[in-house]
Specification:
The radius of gyration is 14 Å and the shape is flat. The chain is of the alpha+beta class. It starts with 21 loop residues before the first strand and ends with a helix. Helices cover 35% and strands 14% of the residues. The chain has a two-stranded parallel sheet. The protein is built from two helices and two strands, in the order E-H-E-H. Helix 1 links the parallel strand 1 and strand 2.
Length: 83
């Protein structure tokens, strides 16, 4: 029965309430998160959203060169938006 219950709130439903800049880092070959969900969040955030894409699967962003690139982009995003 637990699999049939809704598992918490859907972040997509609340994205329009966010008032600060948001960095969305997307793995384009992800098979766990739907493309539709990040597109809807980016649309709800409008000009507050910065979207970066990586041609990797869901967990690949945590390793090697892609990890280094993602962390570098996170640092730059914070420097530009939260001084």
């Amino acid at each position: 029965r637990i699999l049939l219950r809704k598992q918490g709130n859907n972040p997509v439903d609340f994205a329009h309430l966010v008032d600060c800049p948001v960095l969305l880092q997307v793995c384009t070959k992800d098979n766990l998160v739907s493309k539709r969900s990040y597109v809807k969040v980016a649309e709800a955030l409008g000009d507050k959203a910065t979207v970066t894409k990586y041609p990797v699967e869901h967990f690949d962003i945590y390793l090697g060169e892609v990890f280094e690139q993602a962390v570098s982009e996170q640092c730059n995003f914070f420097k530009q938006n939260f001084r």
